[in-house]
Amino acid sequence: MTAQATDPRPLTGEPVALDLLNTRWMSDGELADLFAGALGLTRLEGLAIWLRTTGLDDRFRADAPTLVHLLTAREALARAVAHPEDAGARSLVDSVLEHGRIRATLTAEGPGERAEFADPAWGPAWTAARDYLDLLGGAPDRIRKCASDRCVLHFHDTSRNGTRRWCSMASCGNRAKASRHYARTRER
User: Fold this and answer.
1) Which parts of the chain fold into alpha helices (H)?
2) What's the confidence (pLDDT) of residue 171?
């Protein structure tokens, strides 16, 4: 497979932090992992797909050090999202954030910012952790896990009234509706 292979994940396009969490998903009842050889991809091919899908491929390389740091960030974010009150989880995210910083700049358009890294391999991991901070600063209650028991995906609820429950109405939402319908018809 080439680096231009199609992203096999069922949910893409979420903010970078949640998109990183969604590199693990359920496929035919089994946990699939984009970074662990899902669907015949090598680990680095999975990384290249993720970098391309998130728009980070123009700044960062799909290499082994980047993958190791990204896996560290994914575990830190998974713990922080699942248990926001856990000081240990917050510490893990902080340890990823220590590998980068924001430099204020002056551009032709006016004030700007640029991320800097002592080791560019930390770039995607730091970017995902920084994105999580931005989500927390905006609407932390809109960071959600899919309501389906069989789903591990996360999303940022951008619905007007903030009541989105499913990663996708076409898959998990439809299954829940069908299950409720079946239960009602069975009772009759």
Assistant:
1) 16-21, 43-54, 64-82, 87-97, 123-138, 174-187
2) 72
